[in-house]
UniProtKB/TrEMBL annotation:
Keyword tags: Membrane, Transmembrane, Transmembrane helix
Listed transmembrane segments: 24-45, 57-74, 94-116, 167-188, 208-226, 238-256, 271-292
Tagged with keyword Transmembrane: yes
Alphabetized PANTHER family for the sequence: INNER MEMBRANE PROTEIN YHAH-RELATED (PTHR34980:SF2), INNER MEMBRANE PROTEIN-RELATED-RELATED (PTHR34980)
GO cellular component: plasma membrane
Name assigned to this protein: DUF805 domain-containing protein
Superkingdom classification of source: Bacteria
Keyword Transmembrane helix appears in the UniProt entry: yes
Length: 301
């Protein structure tokens, strides 16, 4: 069962293979256990909270809920891919995956179709994985244009390695572009407020564009950081824990702020916020030191 769930993640972008009925239902069972488990924990924590004003239990409930949202977002693509492979194994057209667009009924019909056993006269297809995005493995001197190309083509490429020079050049270009955009948006907003006393569609559009830009580069930033950390010897599991810690800090900060607002300032969590700030600073500086670390054998490659 655990092996089936491991395949569920390994074939994240594999829409062309086949998945047996046993592997599909085993992976789906563990997937649903995660969802229901996190949901139940969140509900129980809400029940333990005060019925008058939100308190610390509500903070923990919001944190668990944020983990649930993150898990659902991360599993959207592999869920579609494993269903596509299951349909292929049952000799059904892959286009049936669009039944998911029909609320409630479509998902039920699709699960019934996924329960159909394959035609026994067909040859058995063993489990395999196909790479959907290029494998980025930078060695030696990488030019500026190559660094930008690898950043874009490696949008979802969490395998391989990115050397220090390429990483810095990509950050200089994409984060620098974002900072310039932010500066222009603030300038446009300041000019509009100074002249007409309010913002117009111009500054609002620029502000929306900034948000879309940083949302767009979020995934390649995570992927290039993963490759960079892999280049200095940090394993994927450790990298995932680092990212999860960062996500937890952001979620806790949101939960503290939300509960403080809903309790009309009665619960302010001053000490907890102070420790959270210290932990976040330690994590940020530690991550930066890892990203800027030179690999011992980098000059020999």
């Amino acid at each position: 069962m655990l092996n089936s769930y491991r395949k569920f993640w390994q074939d994240y972008f594999n829409f062309k293979g086949k998945t047996t009925r046993k592997d599909f239902w085993s992976a789906l069972l563990i997937h649903l256990l995660f969802i229901f488990g996190l949901s139940i924990i969140s509900i129980l924590l809400n029940e333990l909270a005060s019925g008058v004003l939100p308190d610390g239990f509500n903070v923990l409930s919001l944190l668990i809920r944020s983990y649930l949202v993150l898990y659902l977002l991360l599993t959207m693509i592999p869920t579609l891919s494993v269903m596509t492979r299951r349909l292929a194994d049952a000799n059904l057209p892959w286009a049936l995956i669009f039944l998911n667009l029909i609320p409630f009924v479509g998902a039920i019909i699709l699960l019934i179709l996924c329960a159909i056993d394959k035609d026994q006269s067909k040859p058995v297809t063993v489990h395999h994985s196909k790479r959907f995005f290029p494998y980025i493995n930078e060695k030696g001197n990488v030019t500026f244009s190559e660094a930008i190309k690898n950043y874009v083509t490696g949008y979802f490429s969490f395998d391989g390695k990115t050397n220090l020079k390429s990483f810095l050049r990509a950050q200089l270009f994409f984060l620098g572009l974002g900072l310039i955009w932010i500066g222009l948006a603030f300038l446009a907003q300041a000019i509009e407020i100074n002249r007409i006393g309010q913002t117009t569609i111009l500054s609002q559009s620029m502000d929306f564009g900034v948000r879309c830009y940083f949302a767009f580069i979020l995934v390649p930033e995570l992927s290039v950081m993963t490759r960079r950390l892999n280049d200095v010897g940090i394993a994927k599991k450790e990298t995932f824990l680092i990212f999860l810690a960062g996500y937890s800090i952001v979620s806790l900060h949101y939960a503290f702020s939300k509960v403080t607002e809903l309790s009309y300032g009665f619960h302010q969590f001053v000490l907890a916020k102070y420790f959270l700030f210290l932990i976040s600073m330690v994590l940020v500086f530690w991550l930066i030191s890892l990203l800027l670390k030179n690999e011992k054998n980098q000059d020999q490659r």
